[in-house]
Amino acid sequence: MTTAADPTPATVRRAADPSPLIGAADLPPARHFVDGTFVEPSTDRVIDVVDPSTEDVIARVPEGTAEDVDRAVAAALAAAGPWARRLPRERSELLHAVADRLAGNTELLARLESANTGKPLAVSTDDVGQAVDTFRFMAGAVRAATSLAAGEYAENHLSVILREPLGVIGVITPWNYPLLMAAWKIAPVLAAGNTLVLKPSEQTPLTTLKFAELVADLLPAGVLNVVNGYGATVGARLAEHPDVDMIALTGSVGSGRAVARAAADTLKRVHLELGGKAPVVVFEDADLTAAASALRVAGFWNSGQECGAACRVLVHESVAGEFIERLVGEVRALVVGEPAAGADVEVGPMVSKAHFDRVTGFLERAKKEGLRAATGGGALDGPGHFVAPTVLVDVPEGAEAAREEIFGPVVTVETFTDEDEAVRRANDVPLGLSASVWTENARRSHDIAARLDFGTVWVNSHLVLASEVPWGGFKGSGYGRDLSIYALDDYTRTKHVMHHHGR
Ligand code: NAD
Predict the structure, then answer these.
(1) Where does CATH 3.40.605.10 sit in the chain?
(2) How far apart are alpha carbons 447 and 436 in whole angstroms?
(3) Which residues, at least 6 apart from 66, have a Cβ–Cβ distance to it below 8 Å?
(4) Which of 68, 103, 124, 407 could form a disulfide with 64 if both were Cys (CB 3.0 to 4.6 A apart)?
(5) Rounded distance, CA 286 to CA 106, Å?
(6) By alpha-carbon position, which residue is closest to atom 22 of ligand 1?
(7) What pLDDT, on the 0 to 100 scale, is given for residue 10?
(8) From the CA of 150, how far away is ligand 1's center (Å)?
(9) What is the pLDDT of residues 464-487, one digit of tens each?
(10) Which fold, 24-274+477-496?
């Protein structure tokens, strides 16, 4: 759907050096990690792990079974009591040691992540840095817990609130930030005194396995366990397992529903970080240059395979032409390439052929619906699953591309006429993860942010996160929070102990 005036940016920059990003010595053991060691799987079935830039198979991991899960849960259960009894200071010191170990292996982890996901090295290096910071934050936060003051709230009765770990947590992670999403769960889960069994995405297990290998000598056996495999078997068993006290998933809405259903029989707690479709509301008084340049990053970071991606612009009609021109200028300048093609590569491939087909399917249907690609609009040459960075304009209200999570390098631009319309249309999606408002008007910046139904709202920014502040959604984006003390709270339970001291 490219136009004559703007052909799809033609090329994918390829690595000049033919040596691959990773060698055999960089790979983690291709097994499950249970009770502090890599163990043989219960079957010999394997899953191919593919480099999406080259389409080469770079590893094979075991296809886990319910039996593998049961073994890992038993190990986590046995480790839960002793781990919960460790002092916060002791758990904190171990989490700092984990952070140090990760930081010391940044370059290796970044190369592995880029080889498995296709993401630019700048992105995977940033992921490792954020993972390190997540461990450091949780290591500090667990030593500074706060709650209602102990005191007398009923006559002659002293109330004390205890915060206890839940026990064994099942964790299921996605492919878009394999290491970082694992860190977002592992750090608060362990800090709070729980043990866990983690299932990485079957497509991207390498950095999670490498993480287990790197920290195996730091953490007590059984505290962290990793079982490879598919969602329908390994994920489902974790969600239904009677000895798993809570199941935490980052993934799609469909997987969230499946996990919540499977968890219902045991009434275990459920923590869901699901999809997003972030509106970017640009008012006529906004700094259009700043907004366009922010979208170059926030719309296309990780090739748009980002739950908070700035993918749906709603711009005031009076500045739409000028804004689109600036945005298209930024997007045309993006450097698309393999991870090893240079430090300035900004956009990599889609993670898999299936996801590439899904994204290009959205683009084809958009064309049939009458949307126009102001730049990009289709696939780029292989090998690898590359899609051109795309800006879709002439987007009518309710168009599929502006409602559904595409999860690729695609930004749609719609227009609005007044504040009420902007708010109504921004909120008119089933997902509520994040949004941004662009305005120089102080009243508007407060009022519109308050009226937007999203778990994070940025004002004059987008996709900036910090370990101290919560991340999580409303509506179809799930419930529960990652990062911050709110995540730590999510992985604990409160117990009220009341002492009668009257005579
Ligand atoms: P996905 O739902 O396909 O897979 C996520 C994980 O769930 C995988 O490990 C998968 O094996 C597992 N799974 C699939 N079906 C399951 C089932 N029936 N039972 C248990 N587990 C099951 O998602 P994905 O394609 O890997 O990731 C992309 C999605 O993740 C997007 O929708 C994105 O928005 C979302 N995401 C959200 C956040 C957030 O913080 N809210 C962060 C990253 C990604």
Answers:
(1) 24-274+477-496
(2) 13
(3) 233, 234, 237
(4) 68
(5) 38
(6) 231
(7) 59
(8) 41
(9) 999 999 999 999 999 999 999 999
(10) Aldehyde Dehydrogenase; Chain A, domain 1 (3.40.605)
Q: For CA atoms 122, 478, 62, 304, give the dihedral sign.
A: negative
What was the pLDDT predicted at 20? 85
275 lines ligand 1 (CB under 6 A): yes
Predicted pLDDT at 219: 98
CA distance linking residue 159 with residue 152, whole number of Å: 6
Question: For residues 118 and 351, is the Cβ–Cβ distance under 8 A?
Answer: yes
Is position 273 annotated as part of the catalytic site? yes
Compute, in angstroms, the gap from residue 257 CA to the centroid of ligand 1. 11
- CATH 3.40.309.10 domain position(s) in the chain: 276-466
CA distance 413 to 7: 19
Whether residue 175 has its Cβ less than 6 Å from ligand 1: yes
**Sheet containing 492-500, strands listed edge to edge, beginning at the edge strand earlier in sequence:** 151-154, 157-165, 492-500
Distance, CA of 31 to CA of 41 (rounded, Å): 7
Gap from CA of 253 to ligand 1 centroid (Å): 8
Instruction: Please confirm, yes or no, whether 311 is among the known catalytic residues.
Output: no
Determine the 3-state secondary structure of 344 from DSSP: coil
CA pair distance 189, 194, nearest whole angstrom: 5
% of the chain with per-residue pLDDT over 70: 98
Ligand 1 in reach of 206 Cβ (< 6 A): no
> Among 172, 203, 253, 255, which is best to mutate for testing ligand 1, by the most ligand atoms less than 8 A from CB?
255
Cβ of 239 closer than 6 Å to ligand 1, yes or no, is yes
Q: What are phi and psi of 120, to 5 degrees?
A: -55, 150
Task: Look at ligand 1, atom 17, and give the residue with the nearest C-alpha.
Answer: 231
Contact 84, 143 (CB under 8 A): no
Give the range among 19-28, 180-189, 477-486 with minimum mean pLDDT: 19-28
Q: Which CATH number fits domain 276-466: 3.40.50.10280, 3.40.309.10, 1.20.1260.10, 3.40.50.2300?
A: 3.40.309.10
